[in-house]
Amino acid sequence: MASDKAAGTFPVDQPVKALIRDHDMVRALADKYLNSDSQEVKKQAGTQILQALHMHSRLEESIFYPAVRCIDASLISHFEQDHQKVDDLVATLEGMSLDDSHSDTLMRELITAVSAHIQEEENDLFPRIEGSGVDMTPVGLQMQSFEANLVHTQAQISDGSIRRR
Ligand SMILES: [Fe+2]
Ligand SMILES: [Fe+2]
Hints:
CATH class: Mainly Alpha
Radius of gyration: 17 Å
Bound molecules: fe (ii) ion
CATH architecture: Up-down Bundle
Strand content: under 5%
Mean pLDDT: 91
Shape: globular
């Protein structure tokens, strides 16, 4: 098993904590977006929301959901459908300039959908993981390396060394 040092800041033995940390970050960014009158602040918060959701959704869809599907398959399918709607909105918003009323309407729609979704994950799924018998440490290790790869790829996209998709 990885030591705390090797694990870095990702809580490999409690990966749900990492997901809640992402949720908290998205909630804080959403508050910032919704409560600011500054176009500049909204644009920055909006961009950060899209980046955070892109990363978080890939992590859940690729590693976390398959690992916990045995707890409640229909709930996980429901969450995957939520993601589809969120992913579509994220993809649309990624192609927009985030400084007009149309993008504002879509961003608010996205925030409403995401807020309901993460609340459901926290209320209906996360509490059931403990005691389910699923060993979360291997899942946490996979999530940690998946996230590290995504961050690395994202950095390469940002500095222009590779193109997205
Ligand atoms: Fe999710
Ligand atoms: Fe989530």
